[in-house]
Design a protein that fits this description.
With 300 residues, the protein is α+β, with helices and mostly antiparallel strands. The chain has 2 domains: 24-197, Immunoglobulin-like, CATH 2.60.40; 201-298. It is built from 4 helices and 13 strands. It has helices at residues 2-18, 199-236, 242-271, 278-298, and strands at residues 41-44, 51-57, 62-70, 76-82, 91-98, 105-112, 128-136, 139-147, 154-162, 165-166, 169-170, 183-187, 193-194. The strands form 3 sheets. Strands 6-5-4-9-12-13 form a 6-stranded antiparallel beta sheet, with no helix packed on it. A 5-stranded antiparallel beta sheet has the order 1-2-3-8-7, with no helix packed on it. A hairpin with an 8-residue loop joins strand 4 and strand 5. Helix 1 packs antiparallel against helix 4, helix 2 runs antiparallel to helix 3 (242-271) and helix 3 runs antiparallel to helix 4. The structure holds 2-acetamido-2-deoxy-beta-D-glucopyranose (5 copies). Keywords: Electron transport, Iron, Membrane, Metal-binding, Signal, Transmembrane, Transmembrane helix, Transport.
């Protein structure tokens, strides 16, 4: 019993340690750039430790951007605007990496039209007036002055980093989170960042509904019914062990469904970028820990 409780308490401690911090500060504010370049706005992008700095010029619809992301010197980084849709296809992408022969940091622009793109330098669907990149302090920085497509200030952006190369040019990247979550929509005028509605969020909505249903069924119906049944049947016939079997079956089924609902909740929580429902999360973890301690006791 002692080891069981210890394990539960340890698990609870681990959850609290690895929960996201309560406030995520905009780390971008403190960043500086070579040649004392200054930008009017910045945004700490939600994943991969990337930041975007920019100055928008309403007079000619251009914006100067500086995109910074941590990456090993042997890896590549990318930043993209997708003028037509969200996702990888149609992304007008700027890549930076160390050229394998010269060793200098180079910038290459490519329009990505399939999932196995060949990265070669080509014109984008909008003008890039100026571009450069540098590597220092374990980070790549891409500088560019771009003509915002359609003269629209709100654009779908995406960013990426990887270590695979094919034929000396950037190859694939990891296909799990956080890499697949590296896109958003940014208003270069107001600075507002809006998560992109994607097929993934329909899936998220479905998972949220399943999370709700599982937890309602487990914590809201089966477990309370198990408790009521135990009290009711026991009071009808205190000598019969029937109440205990019914109770145990209900509580076991309820607990198993509850575990599934709780696990799905943790998965959803870990995937939601920068959003934490603290009250909900803490209550869920406390409730789950107490239920698990009780299961430990009753299974003795
Ligand atoms: C756009 O306007 C800004 C500010 O007036 C200027 O610094 C920049 O050079 C212009 N860019 C182009 C491509 O004309
Ligand atoms: C782009 O839009 C701004 C206002 O949002 C306008 O002042 C400017 O003239 C437009 N530029 C072009 C090239 O259409
Ligand atoms: C890219 O655009 C420039 C200027 O519009 C043009 O001179 C150049 O030929 C284009 N390059 C390619 C590969 O299409
Ligand atoms: C292009 O960028 C370089 C380096 O940031 C800068 O020295 C140069 O003046 C820029 N050129 C234009 C036309 O903006
Ligand atoms: C690299 O880090 C040093 C010290 O933290 C800092 O002074 C320098 O400005 C950084 N370089 C760039 C390009 O951010």
């Amino acid at each position: 019993m002692d080891t069981c409780i210890h394990r539960v308490l340890l698990t609870c401690l681990l959850f609290s340690l690895f929960s996201p911090p309560f406030v995520s500060a905009q780390v971008c504010v403190s960043e500086t750039f070579s040649s004392n370049k200054l930008y009017a706005s910045c945004n700490s992008l939600t994943v991969l430790g990337a930041t975007l700095h920019w100055t928008y010029h309403p007079s000619n619809g251009t914006t100067d951007v500086a995109y910074r992301i941590q990456q090993a010197a042997t890896g590549w980084v990318a930043w993209a605007i997708n003028p037509k849709m969200t996702g990888m296809l149609g992304s007008n992408t700027l890549f930076a990496y160390h050229d394998s022969t010269s060793g200098v940091v180079k910038v290459v622009s490519t329009v990505i039209n399939d999932y196995m793109p060949t990265v070669r330098d080509e014109n984008l669907t909008f003008a890039v007036h100026n571009r450069s990149a540098e590597y220092s302090n374990g980070t790549y920085t891409i500088y560019a002055s771009i003509q915002l497509p359609g003269n629209k200030t709100t654009q779908n952006i995406a960013w990426q980093a990887g270590t695979d190369f094919t034929g000396g040019a950037p190859g694939g990247h990891n296909l799990g989170p956080p890499n697949v979550l590296a896109s958003t929509s940014i208003d270069f005028l107001s600075g507002a960042s809006v998560p992109v509605p994607s097929p993934a969020s329909d899936n998220r909505l479905r998972q949220k509904n399943i999370h709700g249903i599982l937890n309602t069924v487990a914590w809201g119906i089966i477990l309370p019914v198990g408790v009521l049944k135990a009290r009711y049947i026991k009071s009808l016939n205190p000598s019969s062990p029937a109440w205990f079997h019914v109770h145990k079956t209900c509580q076991s089924i309820g607990y198993i469904i509850g575990v599934a609902g709780f696990a799905l909740g943790l998965k959803l929580g870990s995937e939601s970028k920068g959003i934490t429902h603290h009250g909900h999360r803490i209550m869920a973890i406390v409730l789950f820990c107490f239920a698990t301690i009780q299961v430990c006791f009753s299974s003795l």
